[in-house]
């Protein structure tokens, strides 16, 4: 289908300002990496999301959900077809002990909204940089807590464009994974079941976790957060540090000198440089310690032609 014809079909679903053609994805990822999307669309409500999915199915055009790009590397060749971002879906509200957060909201903002209502259970998320949808996608966690501890249910769109409400147990949440990618679910909303707590105590915990994050993590540079999952019996950052890889650089990508578990974009890195450095770290740690580091970050898109 010609680009103009597809553009007309997409702008029939949502406003023209929500549809961009040949949009650089490096402008929409935390790593500042990534080539162009053929179409970049930002729906404003659940109905529009459903219609975009149904259109992609009908026209047999590739479809990718980007999220807010925090735990993601997009290759330099970009992504064909439709790329969807849900940043307009960012409403958060509470009713009693339940916190309702749309998927495009930042999980940090959900934790702050819980604090505002003296609700405890989401403190661990106060330093996680991703969206609510991304947090469910990978069962995000930090400092001893994870999404599965407090999620009650979610509203998703399936691969056919149908709206479903699923209990947390139906998402198979486990360490840094869920069945959301295998089922091609698009998370639209999460419902967290929390407990009433003391506002001052909740804030003290969040302040402490924020201090730990800011003092230990290289937040001054673009990155995708923790690159690797924690290998059983080890810590990825310690293995990388003990492999004397801190400061190792390929092009503009560098193993952080501040936290070895992070790879930072210090000088206009390409996605290829970033990915090459990931592979170098994996090989070095495997050769030195016999431990295979598994990526936590997702790599999507195409290599340049």
Automatic annotation (TrEMBL):
Keywords: Cell cycle, Cell division, Cell shape, Cell wall biogenesis/degradation, Cytoplasm, FAD, Flavoprotein, NADP, Oxidoreductase, Peptidoglycan synthesis
GO molecular function: UDP-N-acetylmuramate dehydrogenase activity
The enzyme's E.C. designation: 1.3.1.98
Gene3D superfamilies (alphabetical): 3.30.465.10, UDP-N-acetylenolpyruvoylglucosamine reductase, C-terminal domain (3.90.78.10), Uridine Diphospho-n-acetylenolpyruvylglucosamine Reductase, domain 2 (3.30.43.10)
Catalytic activity: UDP-N-acetyl-alpha-D-muramate + NADP(+) = UDP-N-acetyl-3-O-(1-carboxyvinyl)-alpha-D-glucosamine + NADPH + H(+)
Active-site residues (renumbered): 176, 226 (proton donor), 296
Domain FAD-binding PCMH-type: from-to ranges: 33-197
InterPro entries attached to this UniProt entry: FAD-bd_PCMH, FAD-bd_PCMH-like_sf, FAD-bd_PCMH_sub1, FAD-bd_PCMH_sub2, MurB, MurB_C, MurB_C_sf, Oxid_FAD_bind_N
EC main group: oxidoreductase
Names of required cofactors: FAD
Localisation per UniProt entry: Cytoplasm
Pathway entry: Cell wall biogenesis; peptidoglycan biosynthesis
Family stated for the protein in its record: Belongs to the MurB family.
NCBIfam families attached to this UniProt entry: murB, PRK13905.1
Alphabetical list of PANTHER family matching this protein: UDP-N-ACETYLENOLPYRUVOYLGLUCOSAMINE REDUCTASE
Function text: Cell wall formation.
Protein name from the UniProt record: UDP-N-acetylenolpyruvoylglucosamine reductase
